[in-house]
Structure prediction request, 300 residues.
Amino acid sequence: MSLFICSITNSNCSLKGTVLELRRKHHLPPKQTQVSTKEQRMDLVMLNLERVDYILQELRTKKAVYVNQLAEKYYVSPSTIRRDLDVLEKEGLIRRTYGGAVLIEHPSSEIPYFIRRSENQAAKDVICELAADLVAEDQFIFLDPTSSAAFMVRHLQNKANLKILTNSAQIALDCLDKLPSAQIFCTGGWMSSFSRGFTGETARQRIEEFHTDLLFFSARSISLEDGITDVNEEDIYLKQQMIKGTRKSVFLCDHTKFDKTSYRLVCNVEDIDYLVTNQRPSDLWLSRLEASGVEVIYPE
Prediction:
């Protein structure tokens, strides 16, 4: 199969051209009324490859696909689609998820919110349970629109009379449903389809008006050399405004984000006050964070 897959992974190649070239190499006629069993098998392989290529094209457009939807679209069984996805996974092009797959892209590419929310859920829940202990009643807190911050809401139910500012419509609605004593403020602005958060100048001006006690935020990556980094320039600019306007900032960071770098700086490590994670960081990290004045919180 490696001969066929190379034509899929190379974006400059045309699958149809490859199919015709393979027909020439194997001395297969373009079309015949009567076909041999060998040619039927070859045509079946070509059909499978075309479907895989279409799936890859759909992934490049939508960033995520689902097995049942693909099976219905291409009139094949879910098990056939899973085999197609296995091919793409072996080539390192996709990452399998429950019920589907997501495209593996450069670290500078955005990942849709609904994909991020489904990833590392147990870790995010542990992190936010620990982070919620930093919150006292009657405080004014900011929840950024990340999937990590979204897990904070369920752990704030025993905190009375909170004021919560967010630039996420979904988090605002979750707060209304689960935190009846809280006052909820939403920035408004232009809503990003990727982050599901409000961005733009309206959101920035609204954030600038408030001064919060605590900010809970997350980002794609953190490294000792490059600090906290992410990918979307507008979102990063808003995070910087959030950090500027809060008394204490809390970085929610699961263990997969350490020692990685995305291509836009959010802030330096010493600019945060707390780092909350789901596993004990290495001794090097602990010593460097302590030297930077950052309190590290993790499960004992």
DSSP finds twelve helices and 15 strands in the chain. Residues 37-62 form the longest helix (26 residues). Residues 107 and 180 are 39 Å apart (CA to CA). The chain has two domains: 2-104, 115-297.
